[in-house]
TrEMBL record, chain A:
The chain crosses the membrane at residues 33-49, 55-77, 89-109. This is Protein MnhE. It is found in: Cell membrane. InterPro entries: Cation_antiport_E. It comes from Methanocalculus taiwanensis. PANTHER family: NA(+)/H(+) ANTIPORTER SUBUNIT E1, NA(+)_H(+) ANTIPORTER SUBUNIT E1. Keywords: Cell membrane, Membrane, Transmembrane, Transmembrane helix. It is a multi-pass membrane protein. One of its GO terms (cellular component) is plasma membrane.
Length: 194, 107
């Protein structure tokens, strides 16, 4: 009985997760430009990690990165988006990071205050938030941003609906249900509705 | 007498802030009442603490390959740490761990 329950939850999880990431077998082949871009990214990563620039290490790097590119070339750059689109999203996301860092710092100071305060002024509550994010990457970015910023932890994600545990009910409702600032920023970045 | 350069002082400040948040995370792990709220303390404070300490190490190290590696480490921690907390909390929720409400007894 318990076993069947686990199977059922796994099954439903799988159904949910297919929502945003559909790659049919026809357009699974990435374009040459994308393969070269993936190879370059992997090669830069290889150089940083190895730190050697002699012939042997460069040769080994080219072989390894080539194999990885052939096997999983469509994992870093998605095949249903053009290279320029992916680059634009990446740059917009990098520009969003400083703001996120400041908000993480504020959220941490808030948690530190509540933990160190003698009376511990916390009021936990589980909230549900509906969003229009349909892709995997925006959902992951939103879930991670929510875990790090306004005193909340993402508990569950079903399609566009996020279940969230908030440390302090009022401020979390204010941030996530009324102001919705993170949702709006991420919607701008990824081009999907908040 | 040994005098610290401004960059080293900045690095020390960053490491100090990181250590403070790590300690807060540990204190929260003991003081907070239930699993979910403890996940708040360990998840948020440890991520920022580790990040600040790594930034301190980068400032101390200067422009070398090691600081690029440390930067990559910080980036991966910022991606993987919230994901790990989410995985823990998700399992607790689906297994029916009831969250603590204001006014309840400590668990």
């Amino acid at each position: 009985m318990k076993h069947r329950f686990i199977n059922n939850t796994l099954q439903s999880r799988r159904d949910d997760s297919c929502g945003g990431f559909e790659i049919s077998s026809e357009n699974r082949r990435s374009s040459p430009g994308k393969l070269i871009a993936t190879f370059t990214i992997l090669m830069i990563f290889w150089y940083i990690l190895s730190g050697y620039f002699d012939l042997f290490h460069i040769g080994a790097g080219i072989i390894c990165c080539g194999i990885v590119t052939l096997i999983s070339g469509d994992l870093i750059l998605r095949s249903d988006r053009s290279l320029i689109q992916s680059g634009r999203i990446f740059i917009r996301f990098i520009l969003f990071l400083p703001q996120l860092m400041v908000e993480i710092l504020i959220a941490n100071l808030d948690v530190a205050y509540r933990v160190l305060h003698p009376k511990m002024p916390i009021d936990p509550e589980i909230l549900t938030i509906d969003t229009g994010f349909s892709g995997d990457v925006p959902r992951t970015a939103f879930a991670n941003a929510m875990t790090l910023t306004p005193g909340t932890i993402t508990v569950d994600v079903r399609r566009g609906t996020f279940t969230v545990h908030a440390l302090v009910r009022e401020s979390a409702e204010e941030d996530l249900l009324r102001k919705r600032s993170i949702q709006k920023r991420l919607a701008d970045i990824f081009g999907e509705g908040p | 007498m040994y005098i610290l350069s401004p960059l080293n002082i900045l690095a020390l400040v960053c490491i100090g802030i990181g250590l403070f948040f790590m300690v807060v995370g540990a204190v929260g792990l003991i003081r907070l009442p239930d699993f979910y709220t403890r996940a708040h303390a360990s998840g948020k404070c440890d991520t920022l603490g580790e990040g600040m300490m790594l930034i301190g190490f980068i400032l101390y190290e200067g422009m070398t390959l090691i600081s690029v590696k440390l930067l990559l480490l910080a980036i991966f921690i910022f991606i993987s740490s919230p994901t790990a907390v989410h995985a823990l909390v998700n399992v607790a929720h689906s297994r029916g761990v009831t969250p603590w409400k204001k006014g309840d007894e400590r668990q």
